[in-house]
Amino acid sequence: MDKFKEHNEKLLQSIDILMEYPSIESERNVYLELENAVFLMPVVIENKEDMTILEGRVVRVTPGSNLRVAQFNDEEGASLYPAFTSMDEVDKWEVDLEQNDIYLLEMDMHSYMEMLSENESADGFVIDPFHYNLVIRNRQLARYQEILQEEKDREMLRNPMSRMMDELRDHPSAELEEKIYNAFASFRFLMPVIIPNEEDVESVTEEQVATIKEDGEMQVIPLENESGEKVFPAFTDLYEVNKAGIDLAAKEHYLIEMTFERFEALIETSEGVNGFAINPFTHNVVIEAPQFAHYHELLLEEEQRQEKARLAAEEEAIENLEDAEAYQIKKDAHNEELEKVLSKEMDAQGNVHRAYLLEKEYLDKTHYLVVMDKERDGKSILGDLRDAAYPVLPDKESLEFLSYTEPEAQEYVKDVTPFYEKSQKRGIFGLFKGKK
User: Helix (H, G, I), strand (E, B), or coil: what is residue 61?
Assistant: First the structure.
């Protein structure tokens, strides 16, 4: 297959849809596909040293090279640059390239826009003039750029499933495929349908997503690939639906939500349909009927995994409850001892008043706060603080000194009213943390 035709396959599909079903949306889709397209433009190159031959008569040239570009005229005499999408389309020109010393320059949309900005005599370019003859004029380029910007904005809102499909297309892996299959269990696709009888529509949203009555009738038109196999379309979001060029404003045309299970049931009752294609105009990931069993296996494994995780969480909750009860017993006993300590006035070198226990975290991360009457320099008060905290724990060395600056200590106690009130009356705090 011609590599240029293969590269431009999505553009060609979008142009086919535009030609058969002209609409604002189908035109928009062509503009979007132009961004990634590669064209061939016939040129005569004055200095052959400026060019690099890629394949046959296809070349690239050094920027600023002196070129003569073949131009076509439309019915009104306007000059247009030709943009061929494949070698097959170039052949339809019926010009002997070698005899006329013509080469084919690889071009993209930005290259054409740059040329048009430098040549006021050209009115645009024409895609495949001997087939589609699709003209993109200068005045349309502003709209093209607007659509690209809109697309970037919409890209931020695309469905997560669509992003996963992007990743699967660009970086296929069994792990990602399994992840997508597991996501099917809770995912809702959009499928275009025709509902001939309006009374069969129970409700419909602004986006034309309909809910059909239980006994309502609908028609689904499957897609057919090059091999003649039929599949139902499954779109992840409205962004993907729009690429199909379907006019949802037309009478009887709607979208309905579909789950994996609904597709499975629909395919079982639809003769000749072998699966469904996810985003057929972007990703075209086909899930065929033989794969359904594999999906159910993955779904069962996921359910078993979730059940195992649920049971483990329950066991952990029970253990935490038992730990919490044991902790409360330990805490009550500890506080009882602390009350005995705090019931006595402590006078370490005549400066330390009290050692207060401040529970901030669980078990071994208990904090001890020492409140002092007056300021001293850090070195001299540190010993006082350790002495003051000593009665709380049997070993002074098990305490880690954290801070003796007022702002830092207040940060620990500001949400505990009694300590915070005392902080307004005392000048220095010492904060310790019990080590394991």
Answer: strand
Specify whether the CB–CB gap between 415 and 356 falls below 8 A.
no
What pLDDT score was predicted for residue 175? Answer: 82
pLDDT tens digits along 243-296: 888 888 788 889 998 888 888 888 888 888 988 988 888 888 888 888 777 777
Which pair of structure tokens corresponds to residue 417? 């009213």
Q: Indicate whether this model's pTM tops 0.70.
A: no
The CA-CA-CA angle for residues 167, 168, 169, to 5°, reads: 90
pLDDT of residue 83: 93
Please state, in angstroms and rounded to a whole number, the distance separating the CA atoms of residues 171 and 175.
11
Alpha helices, H only, 195-291: 238-242, 260-268
Side-chain-side CA neighbours of 83 within 13 Å: the count stands at: 29
* 338 three-state secondary structure: helix
Q: Which of 57, 55, 34 is nearest to 108 (CA)?
A: 34
Q: CA gyration radius for the chain?
A: 37
| Angle 373-377-382 from CA coordinates, rounded to 5° | 75
Query: Biggest alpha carbon distance in the chain?
Result: 112
Domains of the chain by residue range: 3-155, 160-295, 344-434
Per-residue pLDDT tens over the stretch 163-211: 777 787 778 888 877 777 767 766 788 899 999 998 888 888 888 888 8
Cα separations (Å) of 48 from 44, 45, 63, 71, 107? 9, 6, 13, 21, 18
**What is the distance between the alpha carbons of residues 4 and 16, in angstroms, rounded to a whole number?**
17
SS3 content of the chain, % helix, strand, coil (to 5): 45, 25, 30
Task: Tell me the C-alpha distance between 243 and 32, whole Å.
Answer: 10
187: which 2 tokens?
């995912």
